[in-house]
Amino acid sequence: MRVDAYDKVAGKALYGADRVRPGMAFAALALAKVGRGRLSSVDTSAALAVPGVLLVETRFDGELAGPGFVMAGGFGFQSLQPMTGDHIAYRGQPIAIVVAETPVAATEAAEAITAEYEPEPFALHLDSEGATTLVQEEAIPLPFLADIKVGDPDAVIAGSPVQIDNVYEHPPQHAVPMELNGGVVEWQGDTLIVHEGTQNANAVRYGLAQQLGIDAGNIEVRSPYLGGGFGQKNSLLLHLGPMAVLSRRLGRPVKLVLARPQTFQNGSFRPASKHRIRLGADESGRILAAIHEVDQQTSRHDLFPAMHTEVTGRLYGFSAFRGRQRLVQTDVQTPGYMRAPFESPSMFAFEQAVDELALAVGRDPVELRLANDTDTDPITGLPFSSRHVGDCLRRGAELFGWSGRNPEPRSMRAEDGSLVGWGVAIGNYPGNVAAAMATLTADADGRVTVSVDGHEMGQGIRSSIALHVAQDLGIPATDVVVQVGDTTVGTQHLTAGSWGTATALPAVHSGLRELRKLLNVADTGDVDVAAAVAIAGHPVRVTVDSLGPGQSRDVLAQLRSGHLAIAGPVFPGFVTFSWIAHFVEVRVELGTCRIRVPRVVSVADCGRVASPVTATSQVRGGVIWGIGAALREETLTDDRFGFLNTTLEEYPVMVNADVHRIDVDFIDKPDYQFNPVGVKGLGEVSMVGAAAAVANAVHHATGRRHHRLPIRLEHVL
Ligand code: MOS
Questions:
Q1: How buried is 599 (Cβ within 10 angstroms: 0-12 exposed, 13-18 middle, 19+ buried)?
Q2: Is a pLDDT exceeding 90 seen at residue 97?
Q3: Domain boundaries, the chain
Q4: Cβ(234) – ligand 1 distance below 6 Å
Q5: What gap in Å lies between CA 356 and CA 702, rounded to an integer?
Q6: In 3D, which of 372, 295, 306, 365 has the Cα closest to residue 335?
């Protein structure tokens, strides 16, 4: 079940920008039209003449401090706060903000703003002139971002009878969540209230406190629902600071919703990346060593760290591995996390290379992957707390009917003559966990209210929490009230990295143990909550802290100051990853070369399945993203301008008409080493490897290999 389903379909679930406040005014942004340069002047006279315009502002110097970059100890998706200087770092950087009585007037006025620039040359691509390449471990000397070196992979590969050496290219992509970036801010006395869909209410709160120079205690952030986060809403966005200043100046609530094209520049995106994969194997296809070298795009003003080799280094039982990551500075806004941010591109590369190896040694790709399975992490030598990827492959093969596959490429045909291709790939995703606080209150009416770190972005965290409490106490899930994404009910650490369930549920679980003690009931079994509260004579409330394995209590201070408080995937005695296997059928029409995906089978190992309905939906969503990455999605860049296809017409994402049968199954074996609830992450692993499986299926159908995404019909022709 999905506990908020009724509220959502009835339109009762209020998203950030759905809030209507008395006296609310409307803001709109005007954006820079050069790729880089100095802003010489901004002409706002035409904007000010638009009826209904209340004010136009172009500079917040002295009024707004920088938010800091979230991956460098700050709170913002990038360190650069627009409208606090005359430097234009990228096309689409805001140069002015208008506030008006209506959204139409604000938009009209923003469009009437003109500016003069002293343009400078800019670089947009990994291989553009002027792009600067940095070795990540030198540029950001943090242990978890260093190159990975195990054994001597160059020597092992050089001595291997079978060698694979290919370069794979992944384009930039934008998350385009259905809910546009934006929200409503209002001041009540000295208190700033922010209504905005965010995955990180803590960062919005503490980041705005830093930007405005006020106490975080005077800021409340409310984000009960997001219409999709996917990483683009995982930190403080740059419209909120200016909105807060102008709202205070006007003494009115202000609402701003970015237009879709503006979200392509004022929010993070998945950066371009290029992957060289080298494999050395014996004649049976046993992989002896692998090298994965990555170049990833970042901005000029921030280093968005690349973490691609963390997953590929764990995929198979090779004895030697090297992962090297470089960052390429280009003139864009700072890129960031977009669902399976590194894992999906890196698996597209690595799992195609493994398919090419299977072909080279003449071995079935499922068998070859099973033969390379391992229980020990090749990088640390530690055991995996759980790794059921072999079961995922076996069950997936059976459900898909893989034994009916003719291994010969271009050998299978559909009734209408279309080429049929069957492809497989596996994927993994780090088992991360964050520190969390949970407050549970049992009331006289038998209801239990749970407040915990988490954000509901459609993935179903509210349902997972409600189900867990309901099952533990033996009460209906409708008697559980879940409060997440709201800084007035507790800390609200970033929900991302697929750690939501594995972070919130252990906290709630330990809260339930304490609550049962205070209610004076047994540690397990059904509870008559109303009766126990009646005996206590008052509502019973507990607050607990929860830490990941090996995490020290020091991280609670980070949690309470709005900073990241994450551990994993390497813990003191083990290493945790989630796993998945995807089986994909493609059909390629002979005349048009149009590629269709009629069916997919995906089997995931996410530990215990906390909420079957929403988990299945998560995997379907991830697979759909993988198909989109393989066949459709690419943010195009024009060297004269910048991002080009900034609408949903021109940036095609998968829609219902594209999606056919996706069967989802789970191994559903709890991982009690990772946490007492046995859950691992699911949201992102569901996508990892899906694009590779499509690409492998296209090769099987056509006999042609594509090392660059997306694979469009013109590539297959
Ligand atoms: Mo997610 S891409 O870690 O917000």
A1: middle
A2: yes
A3: 382-431+568-717, 433-567
A4: yes
A5: 14
A6: 306
Asked if residue 683 has its Cβ within 6 Å of ligand 1, the reply is no
| Gap from CA of 339 to ligand 1 centroid (Å) | 5
Q: 């691609």: which residue's tokens?
A: 308
Cβ distance 605 to 387 under 8 Å? Answer: yes
pLDDT digits (tens, 9 = 90+) for 658-669: 999 999 999 999
Q: Assess whether pLDDT exceeds 90 at residue 717.
A: no
Residue whose CA lies nearest to ligand 1 atom number 4: 231
Dist CA 54 CA 50 (whole Å): 9
Give the separation between CA 179 and CA 260, rounded to whole angstroms.
10
For residue 647 the two structure tokens come to: 């609408």
Token pair, residue 537, equals 């004579």
**Distance of alpha carbon 178 from its chain centroid, rounded?**
15
pTM for the whole structure: 0.97
Tokens 């299945």 belong to residue: 616
Q: Which atom of ligand 1 is nearest to the CA of 339?
A: 2
Q: Is 496 in the pocket of ligand 1 (CB under 6 A)?
A: yes
Q: How far apart are CA 217 and CA 7, in angstroms?
A: 30
Both tokens of 410, joined, read 């271009």
Q: Helix, strand, or coil here: 341?
A: coil
pLDDT digits (tens, 9 = 90+) for 200-256: 999 999 999 999 999 999 999 999 999 999 999 999 999 999 999 999 999 999 999
Which of helix, strand or coil describes residue 42? strand
**Can you give the pLDDT at residue 355?**
98
- Please determine, for residue 683, whether its predicted confidence score (pLDDT) is greater than 90: yes
* Amino acid present at 301: H
pLDDT tens-place string over residues 532-585: 999 999 999 999 999 999 999 999 999 999 999 999 999 999 999 999 999 999
pLDDT of amino acid 1 = 85
Instruction: Please provide the CATH number assigned to the domain covering 382-431+568-717.
Output: 3.30.365.10
Angle formed at CA 216 by CA 214 and CA 219, multiple of 5 degrees = 95
Indicate if 433-567 has the same CATH topology as 382-431+568-717.
Answer: yes
Please give the mean pLDDT across all residues of the chain: 97
Q: Are strands 273-281 and 254-257 parallel, antiparallel or unpaired?
A: unpaired
Using the mean position of ligand 1's atoms as its centre, give its distance from the Cα of residue 236 in Å.
14
Is the minimum distance from the CB of 228 to ligand 1 under 6 angstroms?
no
Is the CB–ligand 1 distance for residue 338 below 6 Å? yes
Residue 160 tokens, joined:
């291997």
SS3 210: helix
- Out of 223, 307, 337, mutate this one to test ligand 1's pocket (max ligand atoms within 8 Å of CB): namely 337
Tell me the CA–centroid distance for residue 230 and ligand 1, in Å. Answer: 5
Q: Contact at 8 Å (CB) between 556 and 550?
A: no
Cα 306 to ligand 1 centroid, rounded to whole Å: 14
Q: Which CATH architecture has domain 433-567?
A: 2-Layer Sandwich (3.30)
* Cis preceding-peptide flag for 710 (omega within 30 of 0): yes
Atom of ligand 1 nearest to the CA of 683: 1
CA 181 to centroid of ligand 1, rounded, Å? 16
Please state, as a whole number, how many other Cβ atoms lie within 10 Å of the Cβ of residue 120: 14
- pLDDT surpasses 90 at 641: no
